[in-house]
TrEMBL record:
Gene encoding the protein: vanR
Protein name: Transcriptional activator protein VanR
Record-level Gene Ontology MF annotations: DNA binding
Record field: transmembrane: none
Gene Ontology terms: biological process: regulation of DNA-templated transcription
Gene3D superfamilies noted in UniProt: Transcription factor LuxR-like, autoinducer-binding domain (3.30.450.80), Winged helix-like DNA-binding domain superfamily/Winged helix DNA-binding domain (1.10.10.10)
Length: 253
């Protein structure tokens, strides 16, 4: 396996984009029995209320055609117990939705998760492994490998390959991170350039009047931008707006 991982590192370094990197990873993951892959990355995994945010970057390999819509548009990410566990876990884990599959998920699953559980059972992808990768400044990436079947034997085999799959996941993230760029912006909040500019100055302690003078804009215009940003962030005042903008890493650049 070490030779294969060394070759993977070489291939990932030469791949020009994330899709090519996913293809390289999928080839090696399939040799471990993981035919379907889900990679996601979010610079901010939770909103200010502690709820899961749909990842900014998602790449799929060999998943059902409706997966992207269900998880990214129809709210499955928010009720996916694997994703919920990944946020709080620092170690890779195997999971199964089999009634007798004894994994960490059995302590978490309840009625809220029924759509996800039913879908994966029907798709015969009810067993797999997930590697959470917690990044500096709060970012989170995960790579999940899914099994085409979901027997106890599949679960045992998935556990046996968990360490190797984890090495693959970290190799992918190391190579992918520099390529994410603007694609990785948080999906939670979208502020205009002017709104961000005014918030950055507010974060420096400037009043609306001082910001208006700094930007050579009218006080009414600056107040409008700040108020709009407050509404988008669900903030009650400018101090809370700045705090939430920092949470969502909107003021990083």
């Amino acid at each position: 396996m070490q030779a294969k991982l060394a070759d993977l590192h070489t291939r990932l370094a030469s791949d020009s984009n994330l899709d090519e990197q996913m293809d390289s990873v999928a080839e090696l993951a399939a040799q471990l029995g993981f035919d379907a892959l889900v990679y996601d990355y979010s610079p901010v995994p939770l909103d200010h209320l502690g709820e899961l945010i749909t990842p900014a970057v998602v790449r799929l390999r060999q998943t059902p055609r409706d997966w992207q819509d269900l998880w990214c548009s129809d709210g499955f990410y928010q009720i996916d117990p694997v994703q919920q566990l990944a946020v709080s876990s620092i170690a890779p884990f195997a999971w199964s939705y089999l009634p007798k599959g004894e994994t960490v998920l059995q302590r978490l699953i309840d009625r809220r998760h029924a759509p996800v559980v039913g879908y994966l059972l029907d798709a015969q992808l009810a067993c797999g492994v997930t590697v959470p990768i917690h990044l500096p400044r709060g970012g989170l990436a995960t790579l999940t490998g899914l099994r085409p079947q979901a027997s106890q034997r599949d679960l045992d085999d998935a556990r046996e390959h968990l360490a190797d799959f984890s090495l693959i996941a970290h190799a992918l993230q190391e190579a992918a991170y520099p390529l994410l760029g603007k694609e990785a912006a948080s999906r939670a909040i979208r502020l205009t350039r002017r709104e961000l500019e005014c918030l950055r100055w507010a974060a420096e302690g400037l009043t609306a009047a001082q910001i208006a003078e700094m930007l050579t804009r009218s006080l009414a215009t600056v107040s409008l931008h700040l108020t709009s940003a407050m509404h988008k962030l669900g903030a009650k005042n400018r101090v809370q707006a700045v705090a939430r903008a920092v949470h969502y890493r909107l003021l990083d650049n």
